[in-house]
Structure formats: C-alpha cells, structure tokens
Amino acid sequence: MDLGRNRQRLMKSLLRKGNVYSATKYWTTSHYKWLNNLHFENEILQETFNDYYSRVRVQEENLKAMDQE
After folding, report:
1. Which branch of life, at top level (predicted)?
2. pLDDT of 20 above 80
3. Cα separation of 67 and 60, whole Å?
4. CB of 32 within 8 A of CB of 43?
5. Strand, coil or helix: what is 26?
6. CB pairs under 8 A, 24+ apart, for 1-7?
7. What is the C-alpha separation between 4 and 47, in angstroms, rounded?
8. pTM (two decimals)
C-alpha cells in the first residue's frame, strides 16, 4: 500500500472516532505534534492508531532513504 493510502486510512479512522485536526494543512510539523499527542483509553483503538501511524512513518522514512540514494 502506498503512503497516500496509509495517510488517508489513518485520518479517516481518526475522523470516525471524532478526532478532527483543526488547522488547515495536514502532514506539517504541527500536525505531527497533534498526532504524537493522541492517546486513546480504548486499547484496541490505541493499537489501531499505532499501527496506522507507524505504517505512515515507516513509508516516509523509506521515501527519504530512496531520495538520498
């Protein structure tokens, strides 16, 4: 799955749970800070968020590595 799809999956899952980022631009420094501060009391929701978010971060790191080659 590509980065765009994983980002969309992450954001849609947050939206379904009522977590809406109030600023206008996604994937900025402030957006990452917001994502890093999200925590869920429900363990399953937290694990799902962690999985989706880690997929995005891994793909971003892979893209950076490929760009540097």
Report:
1. Bacteria
2. yes
3. 11
4. no
5. coil
6. 1/55, 2/59, 3/56, 3/59, 3/60, 3/63, 6/52, 6/55, 6/56, 6/59, 7/56
7. 21
8. 0.88
